[in-house]
Specification:
With 298 residues, the chain is α/β, with parallel strands linked by helices. α1 runs parallel beside α2. It comes from Rhodococcoides trifolii.
């Protein structure tokens, strides 16, 4: 355990009702592992969620509850007295307004909030146009949680043993593996139609164009991940050559599959090509590179 990780572990010991912990820093530093370790020791009712999953559900329940944030929050976290959010982020001002209301409601309920993030609170919603409007939410987060920077260091994801789950997957070249013969099928995981090259026996095959170039949402990927424990994604082009929306959708696919530890085979004409993507708004190329770095490369 390095100095930054020990700093996080020490801060975990200070978590108490109504005063949580926000740990931020580079990808692969063990933020989630350390907070999970502490969260598992809590005896009170608790909920752990990827922040994007939480936000998708909160938004849906907010509409269903006639814009009553208290009812929406009850539907999502129930009677939880502690909540752990993994991968906390805010990129959109429209989302930011609901995030503020959700966090304020959690504070009012005296729910202990813990979170991991790649961003310092002051760097959330980095838009020059809208950041100032988000400052009150940043101050709210600081009032609810101790803020700890885990610091730079070894990316532990690169040390995978490739034995199970997402890390047992691979990035391979076109022609090495073919989709099973059969008819293309249209799935409706969360309302949007998503065409699969093959689906059955616990596996699903997608072409990049069907999965990432159509109007699919992260909620679709989450629902598909619940259904299929093994994925294949073929026809992946250099991401610098696709639209920004398609690149972001692909990153969301990788996030969902990695977070749920689903074995995945990615098929392309060459190795992962992320050049130029650090200039794309809302695209976290470092996180994507770290996650793809867990895979075996053919």
């Amino acid at each position: 355990m390095d100095e930054g990780q020990q700093r996080v572990r020490d801060a975990c010991a200070q978590v108490c009702p109504g005063r949580g912990l926000y740990v931020w820093g580079p990808v692969g530093r063990g933020k989630t592992m350390l907070l999970d370790e502490h969260f598992d020791t809590l005896r009170e009712p608790k909920v752990r969620m990827h922040f994007h999953d939480f936000f998708v559900r909160l938004h849906a329940e907010f509409i269903r509850a006639d814009l009553r944030i208290d009812r929406a929050l009850d539907a999502v976290v129930g009677r939880a007295e502690a909540v752990l959010f993994d991968e906390f982020f805010v990129h959109d001002i429209g989302d930011a307004m609901l995030v503020h209301r959700g966090m304020q409601a959690l504070k009012t309920k005296r729910v202990t909030v813990m979170a991991t993030s790649n961003y310092a609170p002051d760097n959330l919603l980095p838009s020059n146009l809208f950041h100032a409007k988000f400052v009150p939410t940043i101050e709210l987060l600081k009032s609810m949680m101790q803020i700890v920077d885990i610091g730079a260091g070894l990316d532990y994801r690169t040390k995978s043993d490739h034995k199970s789950g997402f890390a047992a997957g691979r990035w391979t070249t076109t022609g090495r593996i073919q989709a099973p013969a059969g008819k293309r099928t249209t799935l409706f995981p969360a309302g949007h139609p998503v065409v699969a090259l093959f689906a059955g026996n616990g596996s699903v095959w997608f072409d990049f164009a069907d999965l990432c170039e159509k109007a699919t949402a992260t909620s679709d990927y989450i629902a598909l991940a619940r259904t299929f424990p093994r994925w294949f994604v073929t026809g992946i082009p250099p991401l610098a050559n696709v639209s920004q929306d398609s690149a972001i959708r692909f990153a969301n696919v990788v996030d969902v599959l990695c977070d749920r530890d689903i074995e995945t085979v990615f098929i392309s004409d060459g190795p992962p090509d992320l050049r130029g993507l650090d200039r794309v708004p809302q695209f976290e190329s470092a996180r994507l590179a770290s996650r793809l770095g867990q895979l075996l490369m053919d």
